[in-house]
Amino acid sequence: MHKLCPATADNDTLESKYGTMDHLLGTGSYGKCFTIKEKPKLVVKEFRKFKYNNKNIRKKVLQEYCIGSLLHHMNIVETFDIIFDKHHAYEIMELCPNGDLLTFLIHHSHLTEEKKNNMFLQLLKGVSYLHENGICHRDLKPENCLLDENLTLKIADFGTAEVIVDPYSGKLFPCHGVCGSTPYIAPEEFSEKSYNGFAVDIWACGIIYVVLFLQKYLWDEAISSDKNYKKYIETRSLRAELLPQKFHDVLIEMLEPEPDKRITISSLMDLIYRENILHQDYDYYAK
User: Which of 73, 94, 115 is the last residue of a domain?
Assistant: First the structure.
């Protein structure tokens, strides 16, 4: 295990290496996040009831750490370490003191269009980095987008992420199983046994853009029995009066029901760069 995913020595404990858990930051499906009293710029994610004989939890923990620790980008949360102590696993990550994007939007409902576009562009840059490295996230949503002290958006939670590109042949491996939170799940996940993990990330980003501006969903599920989604399939138009008109056609390409026709992240970034759709800073994009 440690040869594949280098972490702490077996005799290290959370307290001996980093210190004591302090304030509770949040609770998720698999555990809780705390500040570290002695390391104010770090956060520890304590996985709930971790046991070595629980294969599902063990896979979730190791997958999240192994993928997260390899990623280094300004729009990806830095993962530094993992500690196994008795029946618990502790993942050490950078602290993002402004919390998740969803909570931030709830408390800052009057954000300007420019600021929302800037946050969305940061999300796309993080996704672009993931896809360039052969990784799909599969659970993109505002709750998994964290904000640091400078309001830089950082993608977090790689428990469902997968490496889907063979680094030697370039072959693309399909993903399987419905994954993520229902409003952000692409239609092919409900209807197909396998699917392109990159394409479902693009779909989820499209839904996040809608949430950024409307603070609600256009439909509950991307299935034909959902009346709102069915109407979208028939008209291929969104509530343009409530969304920035300049991005409407691009959003339609991101929310293309047929995954083979859906815009890729590279084409999307090229389009945004070429047309300056999100009012981006060109120097920042170049970085």
Answer: 94
For the chain, the C-alpha Rg in angstroms (whole number) is 19
Provide the domain count of the chain.
2
* Domain membership flag for residue 24: yes
Last residue of a domain, one of 94, 123, 141: 94
My answer on whether 119 and 193 are in the same domain is yes
d(CA 34, CA 47): 11
At 144 the three-state DSSP class reads: helix
Same domain, 36 and 171: no
Query: Tens of pLDDT along 83-112?
Result: 988 778 999 999 999 999 999 999 998 899
The whole domain housing 71 covers 14-94
pTM over 0.85: yes
Residue type, 157: D
CATH number at residue 216: 1.10.510.10
138-154, pLDDT tens digit by residue? 999 999 999 999 999 99
**pLDDT by residue (tens digit) across 3-35?**
445 555 556 889 999 999 999 998 877 789 999
Q: Which of 81, 100, 139, 157 is catalytic?
A: 139
Same domain, 228 and 158: yes
Residue in the block written with tokens 């620790």: 69
Using alpha carbons, select from 211, 215, 194, 196 the residue that is nearest to residue 263: 196
Which CA distances in Å does 11 have to 32, 49, 83, 89, 90? 23, 20, 9, 13, 14
Same domain, 237 and 281: yes
18 contact partners, CB below 8 Å, separation of at least 6: 36, 38, 39, 42, 44, 81, 92
The pLDDT of residue 226: 97
Using alpha carbons, list the distances in angstroms from residue 172 to 2, 126, 131, 141, 162: 27, 20, 11, 24, 11
Is 81 considered catalytic here? no
